[in-house]
Design goal:
By secondary structure, this protein is an alpha+beta fold. The protein has three domains: about 90 residues, Up-down Bundle (Methane Monooxygenase Hydroxylase, Chain G, domain 1), CATH 1.20.58; about 160 residues, Alpha-Beta Plaits; about 60 residues, Double Stranded RNA Binding Domain (2-Layer Sandwich). The strands form two sheets. Strands 2-3-1-5-4-9-10-11 form an eight-stranded mixed beta sheet, with helices on both faces. Strands 6-7-8 form a three-stranded antiparallel beta sheet, with helices on one face. The chain starts with a helix and ends with a helix.
Length: about 350
């Protein structure tokens, strides 16, 4: 294992030299590619360097055990160092796991109101606001592709792109059914209602990922409806694209330009088709190995947001946090990090057992 890391360490040194080379700096495509590679391996190398330093300190302290005056202090220090060494070795194993090729991609976020009527639509709006604020904290760009608003507020459905570095790696485990328990504003008796929304997180398809035959597409244009002042119903700017072989339909009317709406709709269409293919592959793998690790099954109830008790519970990993207000304000890093760590460890166990 450590010989492999020493090779990676040498590669990191090569990359550092290349990234300071003026000819590389002037070639932005190459510079971005090398910078991404540098970012991918730097944490592993830094962890390994720390492990190496701790191992040297352990060796030094063991030598001091023969000194009667230093033994007690050396034993105390050894306990701390050996615990750190064990943790670092575990971290290194996790960092050596094969990386999900989609982790660095931007995503298409889809939130749909489910059971619960108006309350479900309001909760869909709350979830979109939560993810938008989390995106702001990570300096990601959120752009609404299509939205179907509810009469009492919130959304029956909202689709958006979230663009930035490592978006999918942080949001990939958000797919599933999100349940809310709270007293609706319209409830006179103060009874708690349970509603639900579904969230889908799909890595954004790139042109190299999927090739769609234009002959397989049916494209309709129509006049926009909804907010928009005088522009509404004056031009056929809204676009609906149907992928005939799969029956996938995507509509977009957020932009005033038909060309922009068409481009956005195509982005979602490609992403949905690619996601369907990916889900089918994962289901097949799951059937083969009898266990599915972090697949983001859409039908799975993954989380409950209980407003009267101010708590959020993620049912997959048994995580409960009593600060619901801050979570709904976008402070969900503790949740996304805990999920990522959990599924990394599950993958490590599967790899160790040969699964």
């Amino acid at each position: 294992m450590f010989e492999q890391i020493e090779d990676i360490e040498r590669r990191l040194q090569e990359l550092e030299a290349l990234l300071s080379d003026p000819s590389v700096i002037s070639n932005q495509t190459e510079f971005r590619r090398l910078s991404r590679e540098h970012s991918d391996i730097s944490e592993l190398v830094e962890t390994y360097r720390r492990w190496r330093k701790v191992s040297e300190e352990i060796s030094d302290n063991r030598e001091m055990l023969s000194d009667s005056e230093m033994r007690e202090m050396a034993e105390e220090e050894l306990q701390k160092l050996e615990a750190e060494q064990e943790k670092l070795e575990n971290d290194i194993q996790l960092l050596l796991l094969p990386k999900d090729p989609d982790d660095d991609k931007s995503v298409i976020l889809e939130i749909r109101a489910g059971t619960g009527g108006d309350e479900s639509a309001l909760f869909a709006g709350d979830l979109f606001r939560m993810y938008s604020r989390y995106a702001d904290a990570n300096r990601w760009k959120v752009e609404i592709i299509s939205a179907s608003e509810s009469e009492r507020g919130g959304f029956k459905e909202i689709i958006a792109s979230v663009e930035g570095e490592g978006v999918y790696s942080k949001l990939k485990y958000e797919s599933g059914t999100h349940r809310v328990q709270r007293v609706p504003e319209t409830e006179a008796q103060g009874r708690i209602h349970t509603s639900a929304c579904t969230v889908a997180i799909m890595p954004e398809a790139e042109d190299v990922d999927i090739d769609i035959n234009p002959a397989d597409l049916k494209i309709d244009v129509y006049r926009s409806s909804g907010a928009g002042g005088q522009h509404v119903n004056t031009t056929d700017s809204a676009v609906r694209i149907t992928h005939i072989p799969t029956g996938t339909v995507v509509a977009c009317q957020e932009e005033r330009s038909q060309i922009k709406n068409r481009a956005k709709a195509m982005k979602v269409l490609k992403t949905r088709i690619l996601d369907t293919i990916r889900q089918a592959k994962e289901s097949k793998l799951a059937a083969e190995r009898k266990q599915q690790v972090g697949s983001g099954d859409r039908s799975e109830r993954i989380r409950t947001y209980n407003f009267p008790q101010g708590r959020m519970t993620d049912h997959r990993i048994g995580l409960t946090i009593y600060r619901l207000e801050s979570i709904m304000s976008g402070e969900i890093a503790e949740i996304t990090d805990s999920l990522r760590s959990h599924y990394q460890i599950e993958a490590l166990k599967a790899q160790s057992s040969g699964g």
